[in-house]
Design brief:
The chain has an eight-stranded antiparallel beta barrel. It has a two-stranded antiparallel sheet with strand order 6-7. It has a single domain, classed as Porin, CATH 2.40.160.20. With about 270 residues, the chain is mainly beta. The chain is elongated, with a radius of gyration of 25 Å. It contains four helices and ten strands.
Length: about 270
């Protein structure tokens, strides 16, 4: 008899724990835009040349104000000198990249969303991302840039750490469904997201196919010649960065709980 009661009590305790856990977890789906800032995108923050971003994530409510966020985002980024100021259009460089990011961050809600049904929030954390820049040559062939050494720098990594931070607003539509809109920025520690950083390498040290990718001014001006070694190609003092504008749909996993008895209030 005692063994049976203990067994039932342990099952009840485990069920209560699982219910409490589900009440604190939300899954979210993101859709929006991504952009990058660097030597080929001179505007600090702009919708110009922005591209699609999607993602999925989980959040865990630590309490009424703090939550832990884990997120995976996929985006396309890129830029082209033809959209830059006239003095840079003659350089005629461009790149595209598929960006994959996994992040972990801490979010702070200014209001208790369960009480107010609405809250502004901010977040910050750490992220790991991969973005391999590529371009298209005169013949229409895709050329990946990281291994070419277009500035004589040799191959560089396309996998990096970034610091994500940002903010947004979130509201609850029902007890289990909410939406949010946020802007997030990513500080990176690389200047080669776009394959442009420092100066032109000596033409004679580069294979002809690489030299053609390193300087493409002759594609828009047949009289243009490869610049002298050491001529400025980019600004190595400023690291590249990227950012997102996202709309998110949140679904609290509390809807999986069959019994609400003894459970804490929903936390979206």
């Amino acid at each position: 008899m005692l063994i049976g009661m203990a067994f039932i009590a342990s099952i009840t305790k485990a069920q209560t724990f699982a219910e409490n856990l589900l009440q604190r977890i939300s899954v979210n789906f993101s859709l929006g835009i991504a952009n990058y800032g660097g030597d080929l995108q001179q505007q600090k923050l702009t919708l110009s040349q922005a591209k699609l971003a999607t993602g999925v994530g989980l959040s865990y409510a630590l309490n009424s104000k703090f939550r832990l966020r884990g997120e995976y985002l996929f985006a396309k980024i890129g830029a082209d000198d033809k959209f830059n100021r006239a003095s840079l259009q003659a350089r005629n460089l461009n790149f595209k990249a598929n960006l994959f990011e996994t992040s972990l961050s801490l979010q702070y809600d200014f209001f208790d969303i369960e009480d107010k049904k609405f809250t502004p929030y901010v977040y910050a954390g750490v992220a790991y991302f991969k973005a391999s820049p590529y371009t298209t040559d005169e013949n229409g062939n895709k050329v990946f840039l990281a291994g070419l050494g277009t500035e004589g720098q040799g191959a560089y990594s396309v996998k990096h750490i970034s610091i994500p931070f940002g903010g947004g607003v979130q509201t609850m539509l029902t007890d289990i469904i909410g939406v949010s809109f946020e802007v997030g920025f990513r500080k990176t520690f690389t200047d080669y997201m776009d394959d442009v950083s420092g100066t032109y390498a000596d033409y004679n040290t580069l294979p002809p196919s690489v030299a053609q990718i390193a300087f493409r001014g002759d594609e828009v001006n047949k009289d243009a010649t490869y610049p002298a070694a050491g001529t400025i190609r980019g600004n190595s003092n400023n690291k590249d960065y990227y950012y997102f504008g996202l709309a998110k749909l949140h679904v609290n996993l509390g809807f999986l709980v069959k019994s609400k008895v003894g459970c804490p209030r929903n936390v979206l």
